Amino acid sequence: MLQHSYTHTAMSPSVPLQEMIRAIRSARTQCEERGVIQRECAAIRAQFRQADNGGRSHNLAKLLYVHMLGYPAHFGQMECVRMIASSRYSEKRVGYLGAMMLLDEKQDASLLITNSIKNDLSHSNQYVQSLALCTLACMGSAEMCRDLAPEIDRLLRASNSYIKKKAALCAVHIVRKVHELGELFAPAARSLLSEKNHGVLHGAVVLITELCERSSESLERFRKTVPDLVQIMKGLVISGYSPEHDVAGISDPFLQVRLLRLLRILGRNNETASDAMNDLLAQVATNTDSTKTVGNAVLYETVLTVLDIKSESGLRVLAVNILGRFLLNNDRNIRYIAMTSLQKIVGTDHNAVQRHRGTIVDCLKDQDASVKRRALDLSLALVSASNIRSMMKELLLFLSSCPPELRSQAANGIFTAAERYAPSKRWHIDTILHVLITAGGDVRDETVPNLIQLITNTSELHCYTVHKLYRALLSDISQQSLVQVACWCIGEYGDLLLRGDCQEVEPMQVCEDDVLDALETVLQSHMSSTATRGFALTATMKLSTRITDNVDRIRSIVSIYGSCIDLELQQRAVEYNALFKKYDHMRAAVLERMPVIERNSSGLINGDPTGEPVKEVQPSKVKTEVSLPLPQAADQTCDLLDLLSSSEQQPQSPPAAGSSILTQPLGTDCSAGRDLLDLLGGLEPTPPPTAVTVYEKDGVTLTIVCEKQSDSAMTVTLTGFNSSDCDVSSFTLQAAVPKSVQLHMKAPSGDSLPAGGAAKVTQVVLLNNPNKVNLKMRIRVSYSCRGSTVQETVQVDSFPGL
Amino acid sequence: MQFMLLFSRQGKLRLQKWYVPLCDKEKKKITRELLQTVLARKPKMCSFLEWRDLKVVYKRYASLYFCCAIENQDNELITLEIIHRYVELLDKYFGSVCELDIIFNFEKAYFILDEFLLGGEAQETSKKNVLKAIEQADLLQEPRHEYFNVPVY
Fold first, then answer.
1. Pairing mode of beta strands B121-122, A692-697
2. Mutate to test the interface with B, among A33, A94, A138 (most CBs of B within 10 A)
3. Could you tell me which residue ranges the AP complex mu/sigma subunit domain spans (chain B) (predicted)?
4. Half-sphere exposure of A633 (CA within 13 A, CB side)
5. A447 vs chain B: nearest CA distance in angstroms?
6. What's the pLDDT score for residue A723?
7. Do B144 and A55 count as a contact with CB atoms less than 8 A apart?
8. With a CB-CB cutoff of 8 Å, which residues 42-61 of chain B face chain A?
9. Residue of chain B nearest A69, judged by CA positions
10. What is the reported pLDDT for A11?
11. Which residues in chain A have their CB less than 8 angstroms from residue B42's CB?
């Protein structure tokens, strides 16, 4: 057996227990073990029933061991109760241990020990008191806590340090169970702060922390202790070497960490308290040795405190720099901690965190999945207009090799970032395609319509896009979202594909049969979902007006699917068949090129926050992603500038399609092709709306186009144009309307107008005039040109098109 | 701290200290899942992981994993120090502790833990004081002469 040299510890091993353990361990199979356990349990039960034989503690210990192996031990509960009431210390000790292991507050038997605990709390021997305190703090129910709270309070005030420190933590447990009892312990807690014993101080700090977290009155009251806490902390930091509490050169790091945490709570949102601790925090931050984990533990807590209270900017910078150093630490744990902390402040101290972007991005390549996850969260938060290209490279690289549990988050994060900061449409489309190819299965459902909308809006890239998608389709048809978009594009822009004269891709000869082959492969593949096959079928149908030779082939495909088992496909095929037969004269019109799809607003509105909460529209606030530039100084003389009336706007409710962000001009659902035939009912040619110039100066013009949406609603599209030979930047528009008219300005497409009319800025304004007042609008145009700012206001009295 | 688990590489539980009230079934479920998660991790990985809504801090000492579940406001790095302190205490008490010591004297391991942590928080930050208290408490144990094989001081 084990032979140890017992020098100063009086360890008397429980031999009966050890014999049993040996017997259990020597069992070779699970079955054998069960046999041994059963025998032993029977013996233990028998022993329990016997009169006191001096071996009770060993028996109970055996039972506890058996319990730890996972076997039932509830028949020992009453024995625990009996043992706790014994006068023998060994029996009490094991009895209380048993209580903590077998009795939780949900058991009725736990109440039976309340009296024993009460008695033992006033026992003459402090080690017995200790057992009672420990057990109460471990498993005391609310009822027990209420019962014994006064006892604990008494011990907090009048006992030795050994007991006081335990009573303090016991009080913590009581407060957690019965919040109101916090009041009871507050005075005692306060006075404990003047003790010298570290154990007591530690307990006191934990107790005060608990009290302050639970009640704001306590928080107010204990704020007065900040100077005392600062003193204690200073003592620890500056004091000489104290062997009893030293850990690798840090004096009592456990106490230091708890002090810092309490200071954090007290300094939060309070200038005075924060000021009082400023110097101390600076001192700890600079003087703490960071070569070992223990020092870093203290620094970590310090950083958390600095960043949470109202600290001076210099101190904040110091804190972020510490995190920056952590990021470079060899120890992976420290890097992880750093990123968790940086995540908390990336919103408020964005620039400071940006400085460490390189290191954070490197952590994407770390082996550890937790570190990777942190790095991903942070990286996505750090994407900005200026670093989008390089960041996206890293993120796409990450996506191709990231662990499966992170793919969805990565893909969706990439989409959001691309949406926000795409430097060009082509880049945007390429990025989305890349993601679909790499992780098409992990993206959100609305990606497909979003991408389709993006593609339709980028008319100059139709040719490029359809070529790329076609190629992607040829190589892999397993990613449903990609296949769906590809089919849709081929159906829509198949003619461009066949013409084959796209500049930006390698030349590729595509003949009609190839295209139809590709679509048919999708139709027939077992990998294609029903939705995907629907896309493919519709695309095939659309091609009938875009190709010349193989229309018969399309006719036959469509008629075959007329008897397809899948109801959805069958319906489509039957309808398309009808289009061929009875409505052939309308086929061209029905299947013609889709109009540009109106964007309801930015893609963020789908209710999916990207890490920043989407603020609710409240009377005095505005949706964050819609920039509503309100002039700071209202022009008092003009009562049209009652801009706060715009706060009565309701969020634009998308017509027809519930939460879909797409609104077709004719108000139908956009799942491509599905409601194509609904167009048969609503197709009437509308004359193109006329643009009226409302502002013109030095080559910079602003035109408006109005469209009535309903009886009282209309959209006004403002277009800025620059035909001069100097660049215009910071081009912003502000609008004001009469009081009862509701105004909603959507985000402008941009704010720069390069010289020579290379690009224009459009901004859509939604107006609702329910009272049918005389509609007027004041528009303030402001921009910078040749270094100087231009600001002009124009009034629009008549709206053409109404 | 919500709970602390000690287990071997083979997934055998050697010590479980729960500071939150849960029924046996719950405890077993949590133990099973958490053990699986921690044992699946590779050697060089981070000592911290997010599990359910808790933070888990673990460290391996020889053949034993020491695993603590802490709350969101708790400091992970100091928890590592707490684990280390506990190991040091065991080491001092048993004299170069190994897993077998903890198996055959599991109740002592608990007694030592209960002298170091109370209600999930550290109660004594001085190593010396913890060991002294255990020593004194051990002296109170009534000896059983039949099972004597070591002298009592």
1. unpaired
2. A138
3. 1-140
4. 1
5. 29
6. 83
7. yes
8. 42, 44-50
9. B13
10. 55
11. 367
Neighbours of A187 (CB within 10 A): 13
How many alpha carbons fall within 13 Å on the CB side of residue A140? Answer: 33
- pTM for this prediction: 0.70
Give A599's pLDDT tier (boundaries 50, 70, 90): low
- Cβ distance B123 to A165 less than 8 Å, yes or no, reads yes
Share of chain A above pLDDT 90, in %: 34
Residues of A in contact with B108 (CB under 8 A): 11
Tens of pLDDT, residues A509-519: 788 888 888 88
**Do the chains contact at B138 and A9, CB–CB below 8 Å?**
yes
Which pLDDT score, from 0 to 100, does residue A4 have? 42
Residue B89, class by beta-carbon neighbours within 10 Å (0-12 exposed, 13-18 middle, 19+ buried)? buried
DSSP A548: S
Q: What does DSSP say about strands B117-118 and B64-70: parallel, antiparallel, or unpaired? A: unpaired
Dihedral over Cα of A568, A574, A578, A580: its sign: positive
Residue B115, pLDDT above cutoff 60: yes
Q: Kindly report, residue by residue over A654-691, the tens digit of the pLDDT.
A: 333 333 333 333 333 334 444 444 434 334 445 556 77
Q: The dihedral of CA A526, A529, A532, A538: what is its sign?
A: positive
State both tokens at A264: 């954090």
Q: What is the pLDDT of residues A739-753, one digit of tens each?
A: 888 888 888 888 888
In which residue are the tokens 């590592």 written? B80
pLDDT value at residue A688: 57
Of A94, A170, A332, the CB nearest to B119: A170
Q: Give the C-alpha separation, A486 to A625, whole Å.
A: 30
Going by C-alpha positions, the residue among A316, A510, A755, A83 that lies closest to residue B142 is A83
How many contacts (CB atoms, under 8 Å) link A and B?
Answer: 207
Report the half-sphere exposure of A303 (CA within 13 A, side-chain side).
28
Q: Tell me how crowded residue A545 is: count the other CB atoms within 10 A of its CB.
A: 18
Q: Which of A77-81, A101-105, A299-303 has the highest mean pLDDT?
A: A299-303
Give the pLDDT confidence score for residue A229 in this predicted structure. 95
Q: Residue B144 — pLDDT band, cuts 50, 70, 90?
A: low
With bands split at pLDDT 50, 70 and 90, how would you rate the model's confidence at B69? very high
Best residue of B118, B131, B139 to probe chain A, by most A CBs closer than 10 Å = B118
pLDDT for res A598: 67
- CB atoms A254 and B125 under 8 Å: yes
Helices (H), A103-238: 109-112, 114-121, 126-139, 142-157, 161-177, 182-192, 198-214, 216-223, 226-238
Q: What are the residues whose beta carbons fall under 8 Å from the beta carbon of B145, sequence distance 6 or more?
A: none
Tracing tokens 């292991």 back to the chain, one arrives at A101
**Which B residues, 80 through 139, put their C-beta within 8 Å of a C-beta on chain A?**
80-82, 85, 93-95, 100-101, 103-108, 110-111, 114-115, 118-119, 121-129, 131, 133-139
Please tell me what DSSP assigns to residue A758.
Answer: S
- Residue carrying structure tokens 């899948």: A566
* Nearest chain B residue (CA) to A213: B73
Q: What is the DSSP string of B37-82?
A: HHHTS-TTS-SEEEETTEEEEEEEETTEEEEEEE-TTS-HHHHHHH
A166 pLDDT more than 70: yes
Q: Which residue in the set A8, A15, A370 is minimally distant from B50, CB to CB?
A: A370
Chain B environment of A55 (Cβ under 8 Å): 144
For A234, counting Cβ atoms within 10 Å of its Cβ (0-12 exposed, 13-18 middle, 19+ buried), the class is middle
ipTM of the complex: 0.93
Query: Above pLDDT 70, what percent of chain A?
Result: 86
**Non-local CB neighbours of A143 within 8 Å, separated by 6+ positions:** A111, A114
Nearest to B150 among A6, A254, A297 (CB): A6
Whether the pLDDT of residue A616 is over 70: the answer is no
Dihedral sign for Cα atoms in the order A66, A68, A74, A80: positive
